[in-house]
Amino acid sequence: MSEQRNDSSFSSVHDELVWRGLIHVSTDEQKLKHALDSGAITFYCGFDPTAPSLHLGNLVQLLVMRRLQLAGHKPLALVGGSTGLIGDPKPTAERVLNEPEVVADWVEKLGHQVARFLDFDGGAAATLVNNLDWTKDLSAIDFLRDIGKYYRVGTMLKKDAVAARLNSDAGISYTEFSYQILQGMDFLRLYEKYGCVLQTGGSDQWGNLTSGTDLVHKALGESVHALGTPLITNSDGTKFGKSEGNAVWLDAHLTSPYALYQFWLNTDDRDVIDRLKVFTFLSRAEIEQLEATVAERPHLRAAQKRLAQEVTTLVHGADQTVAVTAASEALFGKGELDGLDPATVESALRELPNAAITPGTSVAEALVATGLCQSLSEARRSIAQGGVTLNNVAVQDEAALVGEPRGPLSAGLLLKRGKKTLAGLFYA
Q1: Which distant-in-sequence residues (6+ apart) come within 8 Å of 312 by Cβ?
Q2: Alpha helices in 116-231 (DSSP H)
Q3: What backbone phi and psi angles, to 5 degrees, belong to 42?
Q4: Could you give the C-alpha distances from 33 to 13, 28, 265, 284, 402, in angstroms and in order?
Q5: Are 68 and 40 in contact (CB under 8 A)?
Q6: Same structural domain for residues 240 and 224?
Q7: Could you tell me how far CA 180 lies from the centroid of its own chain?
Q8: How far apart are CA 213 and CA 160, in angstroms?
């Protein structure tokens, strides 16, 4: 894996962020560039605990924070214990409010995840903060008098998320309508306590980001900055950060390291260079070299392999990356199953089409059960033609049984028809 450092070929971290496509919008780009180039500043990014894990969209923000930290700027990682109790308005429907105990548990889990990506020692040490600390004892009267008086309803109604909800059948509750005020107050409190002068976030949060800059200006007469990263989209029209329609999580229990590795390995040639810029610390020279390889020898998928290795290592560590790389090569016929980590092999097989079997199940029946063949006759023909393997060992008998558990995965087997059609078999 590449060392985590900024590219010295750029004159400033701002220029590198621009090259990596990470600045979509900002309050005043020239003033922001000047602030970043003129000495260490304190900045923050917020993560709401609306799920038990962060996802790939959050990883964009974590890596922006890390790049700014490597440039000497001090990050405040805010996990929203209070805003998580409310929830940022979704475009189409009201959020289901989670119980305070659930939100508190998720706050702790997200805090541990955030801590893996930032340095909490040294001159630019990160600080983990929770906005519940300055809201739990705030009375409704004080909130309305001290904070609410700076907000104009007309401006609030124009925010994209609010406008979308007002034009929907669901409408919007006062609870979610007030979310932007709570987030704006975060910036004010962090400015007052830490001298924080920049908030980063996704451009889809721009209304909430500017809620904070406006509040600091109105309440204190000070100018602060906001930076919005672009929404990442796939060239083929599918939604980025989804695999089989589900979110790709940073928690290994929700998205296995193998599944994460495969997600990046399957990146489209049209998108892979942009992904390398955003999600890795590879230098401009290294990325440009990979870009040339994609253009000249796309079949090698060198950029995708490097992307998968870099991001899996960032999220899960080098040991997991070695394990999932070996498992991936073994499953697709380029390595041996023997000696692989059993847990990694099992998680890899569960990502494939799979079926429950017993030792008395025939290989032909297993081919049909997993969908690799449509009928028993087709399955038997495939076996007779030498195109079927169990744990990468050829099956030659059309009547062969799967047999007893064997190999590195005592619970199941790898079934293949041909080189690229795979399935997992698990003992009932």
Answers
A1: 257, 260, 261, 264, 320, 321, 324
A2: 140-142, 153-157, 160-166, 174-177, 179-194, 206-220
A3: -105, 135
A4: 9, 9, 35, 20, 64
A5: no
A6: no
A7: 24
A8: 17
Mean confidence (pLDDT) of the chain = 93
Token code pair at residue 165: 């909800």
Q: Which CATH number fits the domain that encloses residue 126?
A: 3.40.50.620
For residues 260 and 311, is the Cβ–Cβ distance under 8 A? yes
* CB neighbour burial string for 17-42, b if at least 16 within 10 angstroms, e if fewer: beebebbeebbeeeebbebbeeeebb
Side chain identity, residue 205: Q
Same-domain status, 238 and 272: yes
pTM, entire model: 0.92
Tokens (6 digits) for 115: 């801590």
End-to-end Cα distance, the chain: 39
- Measured between alpha carbons, how far is 105 from 102 in angstroms, rounded to an integer? 5
Query: Per residue in 193-210, pLDDT tens?
Result: 999 999 999 999 999 999
**Residue 184 pLDDT greater than 70, yes or no:** yes
Q: Cα separations (Å) of 297 from 83, 124, 140, 231, 303?
A: 48, 42, 63, 29, 10
Quick one: 187 and 219 in the same domain?
yes
Give the Cα-Cα-Cα angle 329, 263, 111 (nearest 5 degrees).
Answer: 115
β-sheet bridge partners, residue 74? 42
